[in-house]
Design a protein that fits this description.
The protein is mainly alpha-helical and 133 residues long. The protein contains 5 helices and 3 strands. The chain is 50% helix and 10% strand.
Length: 133
């Protein structure tokens, strides 16, 4: 996990994004991103530690996609689309990490398990591996 976290920090830096890690937040407080300030806050105390790398990539995805602030007050459709796009970008970042580090990517289930990608997103990983999405 540490290699992937280092990769994500560097990826962010290469895109003008700074990262702050904290273990002072409650385990249910999600990581977050600010496009305005180009910063991500990563909760290292998250209750599902194995999800932290994907969460980090997801927050980077919000900034890379140019999302405006927190969309919790937008309509469900806007919020859902924004989250879907951030998930797709996060998967792209993790697949780039795999390519850069010669990590096999034939099995979408294994990738989800290995990198904390929620299994409900496995179909996106599978489509990306087939170059359909």
């Amino acid at each position: 996990m540490n290699d992937l976290l280092s990769y994500l920090v560097k990826y962010g830096q290469d895109h003008g994004i700074t990262t702050k890690f904290t273990d002072k937040l409650p385990p249910i407080f999600p990581s977050s991103a600010s496009s305005k300030y180009r910063k991500v806050l990563i909760n290292m105390n998250w209750h599902n530690r194995w999800e932290i790398p994907f969460s980090f990539a997801h927050e980077l995805g919000h900034i890379i996609n140019g999302d405006d602030g927190i969309n919790y007050y937008h309509s469900f459709t806007v919020h859902s689309k924004t989250e879907f796009e951030a998930n797709k970008t996060a998967i792209d970042i993790i697949l780039a990490y795999c390519r850069d580090n010669d990590i096999p990517t034939e099995n979408s289930n294994m990738l989800c398990e290995q990198f904390g990608i929620p299994f409900k997103l496995e179909y996106i990983v599978a489509l990306k591996l087939k170059h359909i999405m």
